[in-house]
Amino acid sequence: MSAQVDQLKAELLELALEAAHRAGALLHDGRPAELEVSATKSSSVDVVTEMDLASEKLITGYLSERRPDDGFLGEEGASSPGTSGVRWIVDPLDGTVNYLYGLPGWAVSIAAEFEGETVIGVVESPPRRETFRAALGHGAFCNAQPLRCRPAPPFDQALVATGFNYVAERRAAQAELVRQLIPRVRDIRRSGSAAVDLCDVAAGRLDAFYERGLHAWDLAAGDLIAREAGARTGGRPGLAPDGELAVAASPGVFEILQPLLDRLGAWHD
């Protein structure tokens, strides 16, 4: 059975890599000079562009053609249960506002679950010419290089990334949390892409990342990549990362940061 699961992981990883590469090329090479916003989501600053929709259509079309019985959960509306035990979790363009403004902090994120457990994660970052990938139990890589998270520094020297919600009231609460956290750490970074931040924890470019309000498509691939690179991930103490709170960090930093965020109320507005 284990050999069959490993074979399945290999197949899913190959498909995820190709789908992410195709979508990344579409986004990178096909970006219109004047990019139009197609819709708004949670607020007027939480946008969907024509390219988000085109990317998701490409990814789901490619994967469903090759594995028609699989399920999907996509940020821009792809949703089907499937019958194979495999579900693809797709963020066709993580960092849409960065993409809209021509900033490099965006990526394509594709994860695959098997029987409810994430087994494959791929994050394609065309502006950085980097492809992050992981298979459960088989490590994490960026391009051909294996990844390991950074050894934990003293907490007051930790470089921590975060993100902000698009709803004004929640952003205000998150800003207050940063005000309380920043004197306790080296500094705070905000890239605009949770998938990129999680991969940067895996690559040792950040000591930690946390955010409230993320969805499965924001988290699934990057969380697996971070864990396979030796980072610890979680939500509130004792829980998996979810919409209330997601934390990823070098183990020594995680042990301090997760309970601190819980005490500071990072999980509520």
TrEMBL record:
Binding, Mg(2+) 2? 93
Give cofactor(s), names only: Mg(2+)
Q: Which reaction does it catalyse?
A: L-histidinol phosphate + H2O = L-histidinol + phosphate; a myo-inositol phosphate + H2O = myo-inositol + phosphate
Alphabetically, the GO molecular function entries are: histidinol-phosphatase activity; inositol monophosphate 1-phosphatase activity; metal ion binding
Q: Set out the biological process GO terms recorded for this chain's protein.
A: inositol metabolic process; phosphatidylinositol phosphate biosynthetic process; signal transduction
* Origin superkingdom: Bacteria
The answer on whether this UniProt entry bears the keyword Magnesium reads yes
Which E.C. number(s) belong to this protein? 3.1.3.25
InterPro entries cross-referenced by the UniProt entry: IMPase, Inositol_monoP_metal-BS, Inositol_monophosphatase-like, Inositol_monophosphatase_CS
Please provide the record's keywords in A-Z order.
Answer: Hydrolase, Magnesium, Metal-binding
Q: Where does Mg(2+) 1 bind?
A: 75, 91, 94, 218
What pathway does this protein act in?
Answer: Amino-acid biosynthesis; L-histidine biosynthesis; L-histidine from 5-phospho-alpha-D-ribose 1-diphosphate: step 8/9
Mark the transmembrane ranges. none
One Pfam short name: Inositol_P
What this chain does, per the entry, is described as: Catalyzes the dephosphorylation of histidinol-phosphate to histidinol, the direct precursor of histidine.
Entry's family note: Belongs to the inositol monophosphatase superfamily.
Return the protein name: Inositol-1-monophosphatase
Q: What is the native source organism of this protein?
A: Streptomyces abyssalis
Source organism lineage? Answer: Bacteria, Bacillati, Actinomycetota, Actinomycetes, Kitasatosporales
